[in-house]
Structure to design on (755 residues):
């Protein structure tokens, strides 16, 4: 009798399933016995940064900074009996820039590995919006050196968050704080840029462009609010998604003769192109250009320095790392590991954030609050929660200043550093101008 | 008024580049009814070839030339010819390798092959110049100022070069033996073959000219725009494709007019103020263009020029 092919197929599947169950049981037994072997226990620290394509100049230095911190922790046996390993992820998507979907998948993958104790990243606030809920429900700590959008940690006026000012329920499904950041938020960054432009440089009229992303819109709005508060005029505010030419909008701006053009966004989402094209538009050749930390990159300074033209100003949300006494040692070690040209705006931030995670892990292990799982399939819940609690209580002084975290997960450090383009062959090509403690601003 | 004139020039110059790319789409569609998705990426490689040639000749971004000289004109001419030839030959190779073996296969097969070629070319670009924006050497060409009106000479130059190339193509297709052969192959491949036309050669020539125009477009792009990157071909290609459809795909005059029209729309949308469209008209330019595309497809599926001229190339 001829059997039906589907039945043969089904029995084949059933048999192979049975075999794989057997195999899984078989492999499970020896793995438990290996954990009893002595030897260093592995703890992984995840990173998620945009490390390739257009964002490489922003994200890769941050990842390198974190890698250096982890290497030093292993070299110095920070926590005896444990070794640390970096698991780095890249959130650049098909279009060549940071991508929310990729970022969310990355942190979900990292959270799925029980040995990952915490995650450092991301750079972009828009990516953080997608990653925070995923890491919060795990829960696993997410610590960013660069996210500055106000709306990530607390309810803020709707104008900054694209009309959504009650995102906390969506961002914190567990109701607890699991996301921290060492970057000073845009509220302060925008205020510092407006203060510098209006008071120090004496500009009165500003034209604002943003890149339609969470970070860019928030920063641009904050700048505009504070600019008007100081008495300045905002001629207009336009939103443009990244494109290869801003010639038409710059042509209309030229007719309005602003004292300064402010750009809320990144070097890769318009910063470089806008400033390059300003040089070719009659009337904008010498107009100053201002942006936030997203434009303070080596890619921007290297592209703009040969062109000349109006001044360029940008910020870092924190203390200039070179003001720190430990910076010289960091720079030597960093240069030795990655080369002199690999330094970026967030090298120190990535380093500090990895240090905070490492110190939180050390606190947990020293106090025996929880023990890390021995393998990738173990139960990480208790250990990860202990790490989150330790980060919340930490007080850490690093390259980017003194950090402790408030009830929302924001840093207590409210310094903003200002830069202009300097010698493109030196470091990231930016020259430190001034720092403003924004907690002193009204 | 001054802003209006300035935007008009910007729009025409931008549109001229779209039109040059659109011609490649429409020529290939006209002759083998294939949407050549790799065409935009050939244009992208054209910008890279131009940068590479100029860089080899000593024109580099770190030391941009400060004044126009005959030497610089010569270097630019060399870059233009180099980019045209590189892309033209690339186009012929792509046709031979990726499309000819599939010529009698179902329609979908060469389309997927075209998408594959597009991805390969993007990766070639990424491998060659890296994944980041590549800055283009700015050319020391001034502007004509008449009161508040400032016209960049580059824009005039771009417009003239593009129109000259388009006029040349129009002449080639309509008034030469080769052009007649191309039109014959477009109308009926088998009948043309029976009349003694070498169909393979004519199709290869179409790819040579279409891809060459994309290469020349890439050169012109580098005169006008400040940077390029490996993904540029996708963005620009999509808009140029829209221009080709707007004008009537398969129709040469349609592609030219469609390109210029889209350039103008792109430019003039900027004039719409914040209080009519939130965030300013410029934020909506893609939405406006694709809305027009949808309307055209609904009410005039053959495009603006689709019905007037039955002859296709």
């Amino acid at each position: 009798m001829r059997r039906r092919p589907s039945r043969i197929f089904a029995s084949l599947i059933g048999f192979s399933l049975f075999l794989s169950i057997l195999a899984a049981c078989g492999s499970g037994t020896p793995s438990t016995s290996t954990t009893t072997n002595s030897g260093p226990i592995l703890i992984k620290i995840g990173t998620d940064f945009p490390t390739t394509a257009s964002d490489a100049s922003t994200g890769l230095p941050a990842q390198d900074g974190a890698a250096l911190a982890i290497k030093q922790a292993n070299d110095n046996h920070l926590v005896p009996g444990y070794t640390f390993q970096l698991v780095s992820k890249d959130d650049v998507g098909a279009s060549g820039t940071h991508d929310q979907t990729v970022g969310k998948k990355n942190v979900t993958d990292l959270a799925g590995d029980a040995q990952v104790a915490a995650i450092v990243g991301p750079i972009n606030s828009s990516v953080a919006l997608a990653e925070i809920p995923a890491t919060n429900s795990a829960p696993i700590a997410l610590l960013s050196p660069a996210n500055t959008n106000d709306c990530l940690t607390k309810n803020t006026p709707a104008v900054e968050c694209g009309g959504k000012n009650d995102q906390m329920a969506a961002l914190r499904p567990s109701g607890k704080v699991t996301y921290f950041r060492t970057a000073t938020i845009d509220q302060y960054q925008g205020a510092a840029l407006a203060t510098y432009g209006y008071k120090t440089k004496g500009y009165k009229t500003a034209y604002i462009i943003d890149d339609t992303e969470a970070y860019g819109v928030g920063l641009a709005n904050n700048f505009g609010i504070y600019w008007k508060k100081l008495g300045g005029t905002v001629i207009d505010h336009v939103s443009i998604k990244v494109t290869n030419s801003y010639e038409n909008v710059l042509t209309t701006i030229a007719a309005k003769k602003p004292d300064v053009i402010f750009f809320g966004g990144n070097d890769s989402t318009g910063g470089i192109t806008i400033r390059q094209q300003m040089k070719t538009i009659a009337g904008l050749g010498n107009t100053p250009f201002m942006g936030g930390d997203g434009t303070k990159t080596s890619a921007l300074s290297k592209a703009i320095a040969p062109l000349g033209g109006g001044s360029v100003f940008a910020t870092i949300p924190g203390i200039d790392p070179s003001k720190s006494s430990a910076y010289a040692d960091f720079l030597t070690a960093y240069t030795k590991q990655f080369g002199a040209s690999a330094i970026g705006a967030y090298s120190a931030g990535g380093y500090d954030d990895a240090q905070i995670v490492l110190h939180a892990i050390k606190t947990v292990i020293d106090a025996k609050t929880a023990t890390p799982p021995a393998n990738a399939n173990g139960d990480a819940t208790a250990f990860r929660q202990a790490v989150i609690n330790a980060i919340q209580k930490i007080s850490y002084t690093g390259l980017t200043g003194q950090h402790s975290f408030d009830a929302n997960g924001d840093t207590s450090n409210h310094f903003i550093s200002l830069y202009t383009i300097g010698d493109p062959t030196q470091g990231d090509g930016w020259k430190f101008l001034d720092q403003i403690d924004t907690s002193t601003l009204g | 008024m001054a802003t209006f004139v300035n935007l008009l020039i910007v729009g025409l110059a931008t549109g001229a580049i779209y039109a040059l790319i659109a011609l490649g789409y429409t020529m290939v569609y006209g002759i083998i009814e294939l949407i050549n998705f790799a065409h935009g990426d050939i244009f992208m490689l054209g910008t890279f070839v131009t940068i590479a040639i100029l860089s080899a000749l000593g024109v580099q971004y770190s030391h941009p030339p400060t004044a126009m000289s005959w030497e610089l004109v010569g270097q630019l001419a060399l870059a233009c010819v180099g980019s045209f030839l590189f892309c033209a030959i690339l186009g012929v190779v792509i046709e031979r390798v990726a499309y000819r073996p599939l010529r009698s296969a179902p329609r979908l097969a060469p389309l997927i092959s075209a998408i594959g070629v597009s991805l390969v070319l993007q990766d070639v670009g990424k491998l060659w110049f890296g994944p980041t924006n590549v800055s283009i050497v700015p050319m020391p060409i001034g502007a004509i100022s008449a009161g508040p009106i400032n016209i960049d000479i580059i824009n005039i130059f771009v417009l003239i070069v593009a129109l000259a190339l388009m006029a040349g193509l129009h002449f080639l297709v309509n008034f030469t033996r080769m052009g007649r052969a191309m039109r014959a192959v477009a109308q009926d491949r088998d009948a043309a073959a029976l009349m003694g036309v070498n169909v393979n050669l004519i199709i290869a020539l179409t790819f040579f000219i279409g891809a060459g125009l994309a290469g020349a477009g890439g050169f012109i792009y580098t005169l006008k725009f400040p940077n390029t990157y490996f993904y540029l071909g996708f963005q620009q290609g999509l808009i140029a494709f829209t221009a080709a459809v707007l004008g009537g795909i398969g129709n040469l005059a349609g592609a030219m007019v469609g390109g210029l029209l889209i350039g103008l729309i792109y430019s003039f949308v900027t004039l719409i103020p914040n209080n009519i469209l939130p965030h300013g008209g410029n934020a909506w330019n893609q939405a406006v263009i694709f809305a027009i595309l949808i309307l055209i497809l609904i009410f005039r599926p053959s495009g603006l020029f689709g019905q007037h001229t039955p002859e296709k190339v």
